[in-house]
Design a protein that fits this description.
The protein has helices spanning about 30-40, 55-65, 150-175, 190-195; strands at about 10-15, 45-50, 70-80, 80, 85, 95-105, 110-115, 125-130, 130-135, 140-145, 180-185, 200-205, 210-215, 220-225, 235-245. The chain is an alpha+beta fold and about 250 residues long. Helix 1 runs parallel beside helix 2 (about 55-65).
Length: about 250
Amino acid sequence: MADAPAPTTLRVLQMNLCNSGRADCYTGRSMTRAAEVIRAERPDLVTLNEICRDDVPVLQRTLAAVHDGAGVVSAFQAAGDRPSGADTHCRDGQPYGIGLLTRLHAPAGGHTVHRGLHPTQDLADPEERPWLCVHVDGLLLACTTHLAATSYRVALTQCRDLFDEIVPAIRRSTGYAPTVLSGDLNLRDDDPAVRSCQRPGYRRVGDGALQHVLATADITLCCTRSVGMRGATDHPALLATLTIHHRRPTRR
C-alpha cells in the first residue's frame, strides 16, 4: 500500500482592512500596513475582509514577491447592495467586499473559485454579506467571509449555513478536501454561540475578539497570534499555522 503524502504546513493570515473609505475606521493606511505584514510574516494563505476590488491584485503581487514569484492565485467577491440589486461600492466606486490569496502547493496546481451571498441577510442592513472559497486541487478548500455586524442572530445563521449548506455543496462538486475558514465572523471568541457554529469535526482558534480560523479535523491548528496593524485599521491581523494531514491514497 502506498504511503500517505507528507503533511503540508501553511501559514494563514486574516486581515480586516476597513478600506472602503466610508467607515469611521478608515485611515487610508491599511493597504500599506497589510503589505508590510505580508512581507514580514510570509503567509501562504491570506484572507481579506472590508477591501476594494483593486486591493486584491496589489496584495497578490506582494505575496508572490515574498515567495520568489511562486504561483499565487486570488479571488474577490463583492458584498451585495439590497436597494440597487447590484454591488456595494467603496468611496472611489470600486466594488467592496472580501478577498482571498493563496500560494499553490498542489501537485497539479489547479484551482476553482466558489462565491456568493449568504442566503440569510439582515433586512435592516442594505449591505448583503458575501462568502468566498478557493478549492486547490489535491490540497485544500480555503474560505473566507465577513458576517453580519448588525444582527447577532443573522451572523450566527450565516455561519451555520456556511458549514451546513455551502461547504457541503462545494464538496459535492469538487470532492472532499481539508477545509479552512478564516474571517471576521462578528461573533465574539468567548461567546458560546461561536461553539454552536463550530460544527463537529472542526477545530477553531481566534484572536480573542471577532476573527476566527476554523479547520477540519485533518488539519492541526497551532501557533496563533495577533499582529498589530499600528492603527491603520480597527482589527489586528490574526496569524495561525496549520498542518494538513493528507489521507493515505486508496487503491483502485
